[in-house]
Amino acid sequence: MLNYGNEVTSLVQTAPAQTASSGGMSSLLILALPILLLVWMFWTTSRRQKAMRNFSSSLSVGEQIITSAGIYGTIRHLDDQSAWVEVAEGITLRIDRRAIAMKQSDAAGGGPASAAGSDATGPADTTGQ
């Protein structure tokens, strides 16, 4: 008959040591993952803010822009905080510079002023007549 008593005893004695070391590793992961997540969030936020600062400083008078509300216009005056945007002939809006979402040349669709066959007052005639 085979004697398994010594082998079982040796396995039982080594099992807690292995569990303790893997428990320490899981505790380390539980602490490290939220820290890594916070670092990643701060990094992406600062990168986005830097891109917005660069965009805002690149704006100049005469550029055609689109606001975050979807208003198309042309910049007529800029200061540190505000932009005066002409949305129609003789109609100028004062908006916060942070509300300017993009330049019309950067827009994927091109905007209504750059669409073929359209003018600044309305949409293009797409009926083909």
Automatic annotation (TrEMBL):
Main location as per UniProt: membrane
Subcellular location: Cell membrane
Coiled coil (residue ranges): none
A biological process from GO: protein transport
Membrane-spanning segments: 20-43
Chain intervals for the UniProt region annotation (Disordered): 106-129
Bias-annotated ranges (Low complexity): 113-129
Designated name of the protein: Protein export protein SecD
UniProt organism field: Intrasporangium chromatireducens Q5-1
Lineage: Bacteria, Bacillati, Actinomycetota, Actinomycetes, Micrococcales
